[in-house]
C-alpha cells in the first residue's frame, strides 16, 4: 500500500486492500507527537547469524544504506526523520539493521519515490521501506524480505456514533456495517462478524460517508492502514475505534522490506526479522506505532 497521507496529497481515490497480494506465512493524520515509549532500540542485540550473513553483501563495505519516501509520513516516520527511530518503519529499519550488526554512523538514509522503487528502477539502497505490499507482479522485478507487518481489520465510524463503545467483536453483531466491495474486509464482516443486518457494500469513500450520514450503516470495516487514511483525510469526524488480531481472520496486505532483485542480503534480513520476532521486539514496535500511537487498540474476539 502506498504512503497513506502522501496519496491524500495527490488524489481522493479510495484506498482498499487488494485481494490479490501474495500472502506469506508469518508470526503474527500527520502529527509531531512521538507516541508512548514502549520499544527501546537499546534492547536489540546483533544476531550472530544475521551479522555473519550480511558481511560483504551491502552496497558499501561495513555500511548499510536504508531508503524511505520523500517525504515520509506518520505513523511510519515521525517528523520526516527516519534516522530518529521514531515511527513504525523507522523503528523496524533500525532494529533490522542493528540485528545485522549495523548501527549509528554505519547507517545512512536515502530517499526514493514509491513507484520507481517498486518498479525495480532504483538501486541506491540496501533495502527500502514504504509500506510495500508483497505481490506477484512486484516479485517479477524486485525481491522482498519475509513480511514485517500484516494489516489487520479495523472498525471506524463517527467519533460520537453507535460504534464508539465497541470493545470486542461480538459488539459489532447488532450494528449496521459497511465494507468496500470486493475486499477481504467485506468478507470479514460476512464470515467472521456475521452481523444481524446484511452488510452494505460501497464502491467509494463518498458512498461510505453518505451511508454513515443517512444512518444506513453505523460503522465501516476496513484494513487498518486504509482506516487511518479514511479517518485522517476522507471522512471528517470519523475515528478508528480499534483493530482485530490477525488470528481473528480477514488479514489484509503483507508488507516486506524491498530489495533490488535477487539481492543476497534478503536472507540476512530474514534472519534479523526472525530474531526480532523471537525476542518480541517486532511485536513491541507494531503495538507502539500501529496500535497505541494511532489510538487503535486490539479488540477482543468475544
TrEMBL record:
Chain ranges of the Solute-binding protein family 3/N-terminal domain: 63-293
Record Gene3D superfamilies: Periplasmic binding protein-like II (3.40.190.10)
UniProt keywords, alphabetically: Signal
SUPFAM superfamilies assigned: Periplasmic binding protein-like II
Keyword Cell membrane: no
Stored Pfam families: SBP_bac_3 (PF00497)
PANTHER family noted in UniProt: AMINO-ACID-BINDING PROTEIN YXEM-RELATED (PTHR35936:SF19), MEMBRANE-BOUND LYTIC MUREIN TRANSGLYCOSYLASE F (PTHR35936)
Protein name: Unannotated protein
Source organism (scientific name): freshwater metagenome
Amino acid at each position: 500500500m502506498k504512503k497513506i497521507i502522501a496519496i491524500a496529497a495527490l488524489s481522493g481515490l479510495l484506498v482498499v486492500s487488494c485481494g490479490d497480494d501474495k500472502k506469506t506465512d508469518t508470526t503474527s493524520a500527520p502529527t509531531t507527537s512521538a507516541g508512548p515509549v514502549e520499544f527501546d532500540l537499546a534492547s536489540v542485540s546483533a544476531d550472530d547469524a544475521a551479522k555473519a550473513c550480511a558481511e560483504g553483501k551491502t552496497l558499501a563495505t561495513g555500511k548499510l544504506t536504508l531508503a524511505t519516501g520523500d517525504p515520509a509520513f506518520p505513523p511510519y516516520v515521525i517528523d520526516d526523520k527516519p534516522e530518529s527511530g521514531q515511527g513504525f518503519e523507522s523503528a523496524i529499519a533500525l532494529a533490522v539493521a542493528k540485528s545485522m550488526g549495523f548501527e549509528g554512523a554505519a547507517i545512512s538514509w536515502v530517499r526514493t519515490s514509491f513507484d520507481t522503487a517498486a518498479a525495480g528502477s532504483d538501486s541506491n539502497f540496501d533495502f527500502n521501506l514504504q509500506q510495500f505490499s508483497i505481490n506477484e507482479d512486484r516479485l517479477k522485478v524486485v525481491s522482498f524480505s519475509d513480511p514485517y507487518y500484516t494489516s489487520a481489520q479495523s472498525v471506524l465510524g463517527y467519533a460520537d456514533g453507535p460504534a464508539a463503545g465497541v470493545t470486542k467483536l461480538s459488539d459489532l453483531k447488532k450494528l449496521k456495517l459497511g465494507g468496500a466491495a470486493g475486499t477481504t474486509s467485506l468478507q470479514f464482516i460476512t464470515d467472521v462478524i456475521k452481523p444481524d443486518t446484511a452488510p452494505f457494500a460501497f464502491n467509494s469513500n463518498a458512498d461510505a460517508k453518505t451511508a454513515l450520514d443517512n444512518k444506513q450503516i453505523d460503522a465501516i470495516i476496513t484494513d487498518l492502514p486504509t482506516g487511518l487514511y479514511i479517518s485522517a483525510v476522507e471522512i471528517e469526524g470519523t475515528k478508528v475505534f480499534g483493530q482485530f488480531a490477525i488470528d481473528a481472520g480477514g488479514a489484509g496486505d503483507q508488507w516486506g522490506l524491498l530489495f533490488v532483485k535477487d539481492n543476497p542480503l534478503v536472507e540476512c534480513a530474514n534472519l534479523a526479522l526472525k530474531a526480532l520476532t523471537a525476542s518480541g521486539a517486532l511485536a513491541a514496535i507494531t503495538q507502539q506505532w500501529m496500535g497505541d500511537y494511532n489510538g487503535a487498540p486490539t479488540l477482543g474476539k468475544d
